[in-house]
Amino acid sequence: MSIIRWPGGCYVSNYPWKDGVGKRVPFFDKAWRIEENNEFGTDEFISYSKKIGAQPYICTNAGSGTLEEMSDWVEYCNLKDQGKWAKLRIANGHSEPFNVKYWSIGNENYGDWEIDAKDIVEWGGL
Asked: Which residues form the Alpha-L-arabinofuranosidase 1 catalytic domain (predicted)?
């Protein structure tokens, strides 16, 4: 079985997933200091994963993101029709849940090069 992870690298520490579904506008990627056109989001990632026969693996934003945003992303991808985010997925043309099995919390969370990096004591307090 093949697995593909997205968003990857330092990019995820600043990735606003909610801005990557539905109507999109570019945003400034603080990690790479460039404008991100924001044309590839969750729906496109799931579609691409299916097209190449890979399991999608979503890396959540542990930098500038929140626990609530992570939970909302799981809802968008995996709940059938309950809740605001599942209903948005349906409105975006995806009536069936994506059933994403693989998730991670951030990228290299130990690294001070990550946006809003935390040390072990700070992570322990969460």
From this structure: 2-110
Q: Classify residue 10: in a domain, yes or no.
A: yes
Q: Which of 61, 27, 23 is nearest to 43 (CA)?
A: 23
- The Cα 71–Cα 9 span in angstroms is 20
Q: How many independent structural domains does the chain possess?
A: 1
With CA atoms as reference, report the closest residue to 46 among 107, 104, 101: 101
Q: Which domain holds residue 96?
A: 2-117
Q: Determine, yes or no, domain membership for 21.
A: yes
**Is 126 inside a domain boundary?**
no
pLDDT at 31: 75
Check: CB of residue 109 under 8 Å from CB of residue 123: yes
Pairing of strands 54-60, 2-6: parallel
**DSSP element (H, E) containing 61:** none
